[in-house]
Amino acid sequence: MSRRVIVATFEGEQDILGVTGAVRERNLSILDIYAPYAVHGLDKKMGLLPSRLPWVCFLLGLLGASAKVGFEYWASWLDWPVNVGGKPWDSLPAFVPLTFEIMVLFAGVSTVIALFMVSGLVPGRKPQLISPRVTNDQFALVFEHTGGNIDIDELHALLQRYHAVQIEERVE
Amino acid sequence: MATDKQYWKSLQERDGDEVFLREMQQEFPEPSQEGTGGWSRRGFLRAAGFTLAGAALTGCNRAPIEKAIPLLVQPEFLTPGRAVYYASTCAGCAAGCGILVKNRDGRPIKLEGNPQHPLSHGGLCAVGQASVLGLYDSLRLRQPLIDGKKATWADVDTALIAQWKELQKSDRSVCILSSTVTSPTRRSVIDRFLRRFQNARQVIYDPLSSSAILDAHERTHGVRALPRYRFEQAEVIVALDADFLGTWISPVEFSTGYAAHRNLETEAPHLSYHVQVESRLSVTGSKADQRYTLPPSQMGPVLTQLAVRIAKAAGTVTSWQAAAESPIASRELDEIANRLWESRGRSLVICGEQDVTAQVLCNYINHLLGNYANTLDLANPSLQRQGSDQALQVLLQDLRDGKVGALLIDGVDPVSELPEGEQLAGWLQRVPVKVSFQDHLDETARLAQYVCPTPHYLESWSDSEPASGIVSITQPAIAPLGDRRPMMESLASWSGEAASAYDLIRENWRSNFFPRQKAPSSFDIFWDQSVHDGYAVIEPQSPQPKEFDLAAVHPAEGPAAGNSGSLELVLYPKVGMLAGAHAGNPWLQELPDPISKVTWDNYACLSPATAARLGVADGDVVLLKATSGAGSAQEMELPAFVQPGQHDQVVAVALGYGRSETERFANIGPRWMEGQPTLGENGRVGKNAAPFLELRDGALRYAGRSITATKTGRQHALASTQSYNSLSVPTQGAFPGWEPRPIVQETTWAALQQNPKAGSDGVSPAREDLWPQDHPSPVHHWAMVIDLGACTGCSACVIGCQAENNIPVVGKDEVRRKRAMHWMRIDRYYSEKASAVEVAHQPMLCQQCQHAPCETVCPVLATVHSEEGLNQQIYNRCIGTRYCANNCPYKVRRFNWFDYPRQDPFANLVLNPDVTVRSRGIMEKCTFCVQRIQDGKAEALRRGESVNDGDVQTACQQSCPTQAIVFGDRNDPNSRVSQLANSGRYYRVLEEINVRPSVGYLRLVRNRPAGTEENNRG
Amino acid sequence: MASTEIGWQTPLIQGSKRLSQVTQDVCEPLERKASAWWWIGFLISLSVLMVGLAAIGYQILTGIGTWGLNTTVGWAFDITNFVFWIGIGHAGTLISAILFLLRQRWRTSVNRSAEAMTLIAVMCAGLFPLIHMGRPWLAYWVFPYPNFRGPLWINFRSPLAWDAFAISTYFIISLLFWYLGLVPDLATLRDRSEPGLRRSLFSFFSLGWNGSYRTWQRYETVYILLAGLATPLVVSVHTIVSMDFATSVVPGWHSTIFPPYFVAGAIFSGMAMVLLLMIVVRKTMHLEDYITHRHVDVMARIILATSGMVGLAYLTELFSALYSGNPYEQFAFLNRALGPFAWGYWIMVSCNVVIPQLFWFRGVRSHLGVVSLICVLVNVGMWFERFVIIVTSLHRDYLPSSWASYSPTSIELATLAGSFGLFFTLFFVFCRFLPVIAMGEVKGVLSYGTNQEESHHES
Predict the structure, then answer these.
(1) B850 close to A (CB below 8 A)
(2) What's the pTM value of the predicted model, to 2 decimals?
């Protein structure tokens, strides 16, 4: 079924913050907002849940660390036990630095990869720009009109109140 | 049997097939090409139809010496890959030490001392060990020369025999000029040759002459002989300018005896008292309990004073009480005299002065002390020095007058060894027939029409009688590497009685020695026994000395008027270089001098005070001008070297340098942008100081010429391996209450008797560990103990290690950059005590730490620990971070900064196949000769028993003349090394950092009264 | 921190910009033709780099012997340069990560180039452990890769192995951090430039970024996570570097205060280097409005603070050595201050401790010429610090018999110069083709200081 989508573009940070709140009060469902930079506090206004990426970071870091320390013990005690300067088989203190480095490596790399995956960021991918200037100096608010308790003129007035630069309706 | 002389390589050769022999002659001169071109292998296969085994062996690209191995019937004593040892006699110098030639796959690769030998008792000096390299010297002449052109022996013989016929008619003299001939057979052949002429004689001179001693004994005892010195019986030793532990006559023999009487690790420890009076700091002086420095001109007066005192004690009245006043405080002289007198018969006074009067006095003192027949054996004299400088002087006169018809020169290079070398070269032109037996073209051989090269002693038969009654065999350990002929063969064939050296020697032994021995009944048994042992002891046969002739004794005069005050020149031999006969040997050139630690040069040693007066430091070139003595005032420019412990009036210069043989070193060492050449401006290593020698009243004089030294302002960098010489840090780094570092610990005999741990720095060994000991050494734990008291610093171990472990020669520039590669180095520390300089030698090698700091830091596990306590270095795993070397507290690791060139493939035949030749960019170090350990274990396995103490000997230990180095298994409580580790003198260097070294040291002990033990090395 | 108070009063970016203005200012230099100055600077650095490469090539072909090292002094210029460059690198991470966590919003104008500097410096640093090996072609042996040589692993107890991992981890994480920050700006550039190679390149690397706020939110999260990881990482890296020395037995190396001491020194020198570059960039690329005097002022204060820490470290190690009662330790330090290399020691002290004290004066801090001069001196001083630690400790250690001296060869000097050549060449390239200022972040702080409520949005 087709649905009507409204794309409104703004130029001020305060405007986009304001209009987002206003639009949500009218419980129109906001599809997304396109912005040239991360406007602080906008996620709250949009009511986005906090990202779950920290979990990826934590778990992969844990995995890296334990894998590494295990490998160090296995390699230098079980698989190939050699006497190095009379040091004991259990040289945990000497194993710590590498364990830490590997933990950071795993955590960092995996988190970034996860980000790219969930956000569909792929090298060479054609970008779909909602409006040509969203990577420069404009903010675009995209929301569904259907199901709202507000008619089109009110909506225009509301958007104008926040100095909308341009308002268009699209049918998907 | 190992000594079957038939080293034939095929039936054709044995049957003397002409074609074959000719081909062999083309074959041998270029063994180096065996590795490279394919043609030589094919050619060789054509030449000698070998067994499959033979062909297979040559396939592995070894030099053709392997051709000597594959006989049609493989002899049972020759297993490829297993070393065979032949007993033989060293010909590095005239001392004639017994050696074992380690023969591997048909080629000698290392010389070791023969423990059974009655003179050397298993010791072998640096020169002896290095002489194996001479065998593979590619510049040795491979066939005779006539007027500088290659010839065959047939040509030489025909030409010369004609000449001899001429001379037999004429009365012009025929003269053989040679160094000391210890070979009895050669002596008899020479006699037989000379007998055929009306006017012929042999003149013997030693470049390092002791003829004054022989002359003195002719005066006092009526026999011109050199007594055999028995240091093992001497309780009190007084030596004047005699470096008997380093270079004097027979250093190994003397060191062995000396150490035998200074052994503190027996049930009845005893320590001889050794007083050294010398003008420069010698190896011997560095070991003395009491040391005085005097200019050479003062030695005579001291001897006189000593003689007076001894005579008084002996109750004889000497008419010449009022001799020149002594330069040594008379109280101290009295002390020395008393000590000598108290232990008469067990004391020894020796003098290195080339001055007959002084030597007579020396004999007189020994006579009064009743040392003859005890510590000096004149009845069975030594034959290690036979030169007569008087005869030499006469010969030179004859040469000057052109009276000599023929001159045969063997084993000496008079043009570069004698004072008037230049002129001599001119006089030689007047000699119609000049024959040289040198195997290389030295300055003299270049002037000879006939050069008849003699083989290296490792590839020919010879014999030797270093001391009357002790005869030893020199047997070939390899098929001859060229078409050379032993001197005795040449002479024999010229005398018309051609015979092989082997037959000549056998014959001589049969007729002369066999009758004089007891044990075996048949000659063959005697011969085989002797060849097997390398020596035989027979009934000595020498003129008996007469009663001591007092009339000969006169007081030695004091310094000549002009001398006093001015500088006096002392020409001395270096331990490695001696008179320069081995100047072409790179190992010896790179061997650090035991005292100065300088390599690749000779230099003018000046005392610190004199250097300050002249305003020179190390490397400043000074001009030396002789102001007295024979000949024109020679002058020479030499780099200065500041030498503590030398008398202020003395300038000491080493002989044996600036030889033509050293021109070969032009390209030694790595070539790169900032690399400096090894040779000096003169295109040679060092400068020849021989022109400063004096041949005056029948003695070749090394000391006493008064000279002047002036600064030139030029520089000549000296390559030294040690730049800081004290155990105390520089004053600006010294913290209040500073102690010298307890790295060398020493004490006195007196203190040691009170407290066996005297001299300890109080660091308690092995403290608690933070971690569990996960690494036991269940079977063996190899360890080493080095007795600093016994070590003389002679550096035999350094060369032994170099030969055993394929250590490269890096050249002067690399040494100057502190990149010498020796795995075993000998640290030498000076200490000042009341202006008297004391010296401590400390052999320093990988300490094989149980908590090795080097192992922990290697990122790739290229150095790890073995189950037997060895600190292993895995060359092919090393990536060369040098972290291990930085973290080594002993700085014993060596890095391959370049691919050190081994251009001469022929010289590479000396390489030990058991040891990897290290490539560029990797770390290397002492491994406790792990290949010898493995070999010892394999032998034990073969015998089916466990490794006994002494089965495994490291290369450094094997040849140590004083047995200062003991190696063994710490897990065996009865091993020598375990016993020594329990000695009170035992300590480990840097115990406090708890790296647990497996190498320990025994404290240096000096024979001193109590209270003088504090070791203030400053 | 002091800079925060300033932050309340004055805006971070001057000349009240509009968003499009920012885009214009930052992107415009990249779209212009390169200036003559750029070419001069670039070509000079490039030629110096070539000299360095020639020297390295010669050394690898001939052998480490072409350096002035010897049996006693096994490390000198090589490891000195390594530690020096790693130290430089650390300031970048400090600015991008630590200051980010500390909410130092002024960092936004400088963090991009600071991170670029980090990457480049780590490349320069990584070069030296590689070429200092006797057999560099086997360098990969320091990593435990599966192999068929029977069990064959590396020594996990060796600080050098730790180094290898630390450096590579550090490089990878810094690269991600830098690239992540770059993605939105690349998108901006993409959308500005007309079709062509540049555009397709930007398009490729901007990963189809379209400014969706959902992405922005996750992006911010990951950015914080990376910052949180990079902060301990930068500390660990220099700690490990310092352990090359601290875990050894060499007197003068074997010291427990090395880790904090090295980290402080690293930030000290790195900050000086960043400041120097910023002052140059600001002038040559006309970014005075973005890199303002207050940036210079703040960084000068950090330099002053870290200089104090370094000075304290010098005193501490000197004291603990003299107080230790260990004669070898005592000598090592007296020898540093009074021995043959005393000149190096005193250069280090004057450049690192004495001269930075000038930053107490506001007048000095505000005079760009003087500031840059001091920054240069600080880096000279910090280079000598490493040289002094390495060489003076090695050249006279336990056994006096093996004491030796050290002097560099032409090859080593050329190699050092070459590393600077590499550094500046890459930095010039960066300035030419990538936005030196993080637009995405600067835009976020445009209004900063103009209206207060901004800062309440900090979560």
Answers:
(1) yes
(2) 0.88
